[in-house]
Amino acid sequence: MQSVIHQLKAFCKLFSPKFRQSRAERSQKSLWIAAVFALISSLAIAQVPTQATVSASEVLGTWKVDLRPTPDAAPYFQEFVVTKINPNNTFEGTFYGAPITQGRINTTWGAVRIAFVTADQSGPYNHSAVLKGGHMEGLTNSTGREFLAYWSAVKQ
Fold first, then answer.
1. CA–CA separation, 125 vs 140, rounded Å?
2. 96 touches 83 (CB < 8 A)
3. With a threshold of 0.85, does the pTM exceed it?
4. What are the sequence ranges of the domains in the chain?
5. What angle do CA 66, 101, 77 make, to 5 degrees?
6. Is 2 helix (H, G, I), strand (E, B) or coil?
7. In whole angstroms, what is the distance from residue 113 CA to residue 91 CA?
8. How far apart are CA 58 and CA 51, in angstroms?
9. Which end of the chain is more exposed for a tag (fewer CB within 10 A), N or C?
10. Distance (Å, rounded) from C-alpha 77 to C-alpha 49?
11. Strands (E), 75-111
12. What CATH fold (topology level) applies to the domain 56-155?
């Protein structure tokens, strides 16, 4: 511990305006600055939060989806059912009773993120959602009916 205190005092002395520096001392000062910078950088890197490990299987099952059109509207519930997760990061199931096509899953950002397509007589509906903490929040873009809707879901 005494050695560390001695080194810190020597380091502080390097920055004193009264301290006349030789070439060797300036070199020592540069080394100290580099060492302090490296230490601070390593501490900053160590503080970067790691992404939580998530599993695509968390989305499997039946979800109760609230499709209300506005926050103050009465709840309007439909089912989202995920029946199968495939090894190639795709999934199968139904949303609002319509079969899912192009179901995709991404788990690399600390949450389960999904995207999929359904369709009816008006055209395709492009859906995406994020599952975090047992709660899903999603968006639906209807290209045929020209609307973007927010929805939320909880697992049944």
1. 6
2. no
3. no
4. 2-46, 56-155
5. 15
6. helix
7. 12
8. 16
9. N
10. 36
11. 77-86, 90-95, 98-99, 101-106
12. Lipocalin (2.40.128)
